[in-house]
Write a structure and sequence with these properties.
Helix content is 24%, strand content 35%. By secondary structure, it is an alpha+beta fold. It has a five-stranded mixed sheet with strand order 1-5-4-3-2. It comes from Streptomyces siderophoricus. This is Ester cyclase. It holds the Pfam family SnoaL. InterPro entries: Cyclase_SnoaL-like, NTF2-like_dom_sf.
Length: 143
């Protein structure tokens, strides 16, 4: 098990790779069978490792998107990140295929489990209502 500081560095490096669009580097930070409990993107497969494609889809949809860690807190194998996430909807997104070209800025809280030096689980809480309102997306309805 890595130290809490080393685990924090894994998460910081992960966000740096995301923000620099270095998707080929993600296996350095995420286990190949990473479990994304929240599913990063609507339509992402519900299976281990699907988060890799979820991040790719998000970056394709929000070409100028940034996930800025404002705080990282680590204890044992857990790292919690408070993020400011911004982006402009310029590409295809499964929930809203036609780009609105509108921008958003929301706060998110992510909870990572680190196993053997890699992210093995992801949980997140996001202001999706705020994001949808800013982007002009309709709120999903049941049915």
């Amino acid at each position: 098990m890595l130290s809490p500081m080393a685990n924090k560095q894994v998460v910081a490096d992960f966000f740096r790779a995301i923000n620099e669009r270095r998707l080929d580097d993600l296996p350095q930070y995420m286990a190949l069978d990473v479990i994304d409990h929240n599913k990063i993107i609507f339509g992402e497969a519900d299976e281990p490792g699907a988060a890799f494609d979820g991040f790719r889809q998000q970056l394709d949809a929000f070409g100028e998107g940034v996930m800025q860690p404002d705080a990282l807190v680590a204890e044992d194998d857990t790292v919690v990140a408070r993020l400011t996430v911004t982006g402009t909807h310029t590409g295809y997104h499964p929930r809203m295929p036609e780009p609105t070209n509108r921008s958003f800025e929301v706060e998110q809280i992510w909870w990572f489990t680190i196993t053997d030096g890699k992210i093995s689980e992801i949980r997140a809480v996001s202001d999706r209502l705020g994001m949808f309102l800013q982007l002009g997306w309709p709120w999903p309805t049941a049915g």
